[in-house]
From TrEMBL:
CDD domains: TTHA0252-CPSF-like_MBL-fold (cd16295). Residues 14-223 form the Metallo-beta-lactamase domain. It is an enzyme of class 3 (hydrolase). Keywords: Hydrolase. The lineage of its organism: Bacteria, Pseudomonadati, Pseudomonadota, Betaproteobacteria, Burkholderiales. SUPFAM superfamilies: Metallo-hydrolase/oxidoreductase. SMART domains: Beta-Casp (SM01027), Lactamase_B (SM00849). Its EC number is 3.-.-.-. This is MBL fold metallo-hydrolase. Residues 350-513 form the Beta-Casp domain. It comes from Herminiimonas glaciei. GO terms for molecular function: hydrolase activity. InterPro entries: Beta_Casp, MBL, Metallo-B-lactamas, RibonucZ/Hydroxyglut_hydro.
Length: 677
């Protein structure tokens, strides 16, 4: 068995694609076939011919549905591939939707018909499927699929093959690894990732965060929910609106689930049932400045209607008019005289005591999310073939966090908050009650096309898009889509909060937002003077919104500690009479600093009893094959030696002799022809 790393090798983070050649059976196959994204020369790499004949590839094993792992599969079919794609049901469904949604951004790499050609073989629907259980994929070739907890349906894949001598080789392809573990499933939706079983000959491991570890606060469910709940409460009680840019696949559903937990909670993370008739910030501003404007008087009168007659009498004679600092200002102001029987403490008590029911509107504005919701409810409710009492992917803490009484109740809640998109496609909204609050999936009517080459100033007057007290909208990096229109209306308002929940590429509008938020927090100047992309521009002086970054709470990639745990944890140690095997680790899918950081951490790791023995660590490179049976790189054939001047002269002399003989032959033929005539 030979392997070569086509994509996500060398210094690349995206474009995952690994090429296998099982020469004994004359079978070639791929693990993943992804798009290069956001990297130098990405378009050129995506458009280049594959470094193999797609018609020679028998099948593809797909770890998950992110575009940098599946985005070139339609191109593979376009160029001659006719085989199957082995993956989980969730991965197949998400990939179809993501690839269709990406047609407008594919730049002609593939068409709708190419996507429809994909033949998904969903392994988790097979009768012989079980997590970490080997199933036959081809002759003398087997694969085991283990939960990686990166996104719903994502897996690591362990391959096993029979060699000529009847021994077995094995390699683990990590795919992308998530954060949740069995002991700490702190993220919302997924059960913990699974470490490889036994000691494979090889492991290919991603290294996106290979050189860093997260603060423990970001790996704590209670800390995240408390921070999110505090933000929602602060916004609700101060009449501020929250806008959340989020990817349609996984991130939106995670945030939704957290918010639903907060809406349903009966403990400290839950929301108050009432809100004051005035925003808290207005009440406190009045107290701090020592006066209140005329419109607050109306609120005081409303509040006094609930007070006793005696208190009403005291208040009627308590307030006096006071002059504004600016003589041109014509609005009235009021304050308390020094001998008043009431004070600003009474002012706070009165207005804090006058409340209305708190009813929030959580609006999801993303057509792609609407299509994906039903997949989440179906797959999070999917039971294991070999153990029907347990779900395949669902977080084991879900019932507790939803305050549900049974797993069946969790099933029903998931079906409610993640509804089937069938039947909703033609609806403008889908309203779902969650206690006093509403979850709304919004499907706007088609908008008229416009000239996207001309940026639209934020100052341009446009009808504001539908929004809620909390609005979640795509795309995750704010590169386009509905989120751009929301930002045009949110950024210029001091009553807005922009909540970032994931990595933002520095070259995107989202990246600018993330940088601006950090600069505003630290007081350092940003590297730009306006927020801008092809559809959007706003000078920084006009940005009034608060920008808060929760990205570290929701990151889908595990850090260095998690990668080391995946590499060293061995659930099947060698017995007392068995020879201990060792594993060679290939590091891919990360920038050079991340790869080197992980390599140093592996080589410097103090091995504990029962942990996997690591033989050596290699950095994946794309310029040559590796023989997995011979345990060696296969050096490329040397190029033919350039022709020396002596060799060239000898060749010319031989050519001259040939020319002389040809002339003599032609002369003889002419004489023969004359004699014949």
């Amino acid at each position: 068995m030979k392997i070569r790393f086509i994509g996500a090798a060398d210094n690349h983070v995206t474009g995952s694609c690994t090429h296998f050649s099982f020469e004994r059976k004359n079978v070639q196959f791929l693990v993943d076939c992804g798009l290069y994204q956001g990297e130098a020369h990405a378009s050129l790499k995506n458009e280049s011919p594959f470094p193999f004949n797609p018609a020679d590839i028998k099948f593809v094993l797909l770890t998950h549905a992110h575009i940098d792992h599946c985005g070139l599969i339609p191109k593979l079919y376009r160029d001659g591939f006719i085989g199957s794609v082995f993956c989980t049901t969730a991965t197949a469904e998400f990939a179809k939707l993501s690839l269709m949604d990406g047609l407008n951004f594919a730049g002609g790499l593939y068409s709708e018909s190419d996507v429809k050609k994909i033949k998904f073989n969903c392994v988790d629907q097979r009768a012989d499927f079980g997590l970490s259980r080997f199933i036959p994929i081809d002759d003398d070739l087997f694969a085991a699929f283990t939960r990686s907890a990166h996104i719903l349906g994502a897996v690591s894949i362990k391959l096993s093959w029979r060699r000529d001598d009847e021994s077995r080789g094995s390699i683990v392809m990590s795919g992308d690894l998530g954060n949740n573990t069995k002991e700490n499933p702190y993220q919302p939706l997924l059960a913990g990732r699974q470490e490889p079983f036994g000691t494979p000959d090889y492991m290919v491991v991603e290294s996106t965060y290979g050189n860093r570890n997260r603060d423990t606060d970001y790996s704590n469910y209670d800390h995240r929910l408390s921070a999110l709940s505090s933000l929602v409460k602060e916004a609700a009680l101060n009449r501020k609106k929250i806008l959340i840019p989020a990817f349609s696949l996984q991130r939106t559903q995670e945030i939704l689930f957290d918010l639903i937990c907060i809406f349903r909670s009966s403990n400290s993370i839950g929301l108050p049932s009432e809100k004051q008739i005035l925003p808290l910030r207005v009440i406190e501003e009045c107290i701090t400045q020592g006066w209140w404007p005329e419109h607050v008087n109306a609120r005081i009168e409303q509040a006094l209607n609930l007070a006793s007659e005696e208190e009403q009498k005291i208040w009627k004679s308590a307030a006096i008019e006071c002059s504004p600092n600016n003589v041109e200002e014509d609005s009235l102001r009021f304050t308390f005289p020094t001998d008043a029987k009431v004070s600003f403490d009474d002012f706070r008590r009165l207005l804090m005591g006058y409340t209305n029911p708190l009813k929030l509107k959580l609006l999801v504005d993303s057509p792609l999310t609407l299509k994906m919701t039903g997949i989440f409810s179906a797959e999070l409710n999917r039971r294991q073939k070999k153990n029907p009492d347990e779900t395949l992917y669902r977080n084991r803490k879900m019932a507790e966090r939803l305050e549900a009484t049974s797993e069946d109740e969790v099933d029903d809640i998931l079906k409610t908050i993640f509804p089937q998109s069938i039947g909703l496609e033609n609806a403008v909204t889908e309203n779902i009650s969650v206690g006093n609050h509403k979850l709304i999936y919004y499907k706007a009517p088609p908008s008229k096309p416009r000239d996207t080459k001309k940026p639209v100033s934020v100052a341009a007057k446009k009808v504001a898009p539908q929004s809620g007290d909390i609005t979640i909208s795509g795309s995750g990096m704010c590169a386009g889509g509905r989120i751009v229109e929301h930002l045009r209306h949110f950024l210029s308002s001091e009553k807005s909060i922009i909540l970032i929940t994931g990595y933002m590429d520095p070259g995107t509008l989202g990246g600018q937002l993330a940088e601006l938020g950090q600069c505003l927090e630290t007081g350092t100047p940003p590297s730009f003077t306006e927020l801008r992309n092809e559809q959007f521009s706003i000078p920084l002086k006009d940005v009034k919104a608060t920008i808060i970054n929760f990205g570290s709470y929701y990151s889908g990639h595990t850090d260095q500690a998690g990668l080391l745990e995946f590499i060293f944890t061995n659930n099947k140690a060698a017995g007392p009479d068995e020879t201990e095997k060792s594993t060679t680790v290939f590091i891919n899918h990360g920038h050079r600093e991340a790869r080197l950081g992980l390599q140093q951490a592996i080589e410097g790791h103090v091995r504990l009893d029962g942990q996997r023995l690591i033989k050596e660590v290699q950095l994946a490179c794309s310029d040559k094959w590796y023989d997995l049976d011979a345990h060696a790189w296969i050096e490329p054939e040397p190029p033919e030696e350039a022709m020396s001047s002596k060799m060239l002269n000898d060749l010319l002399q031989e050519q001259k002799k040939t020319n002389d003989l040809l002339e003599k032959l032609l002369h003889v033929m002419e004489q023969f022809s004359s004699t014949a005539r």
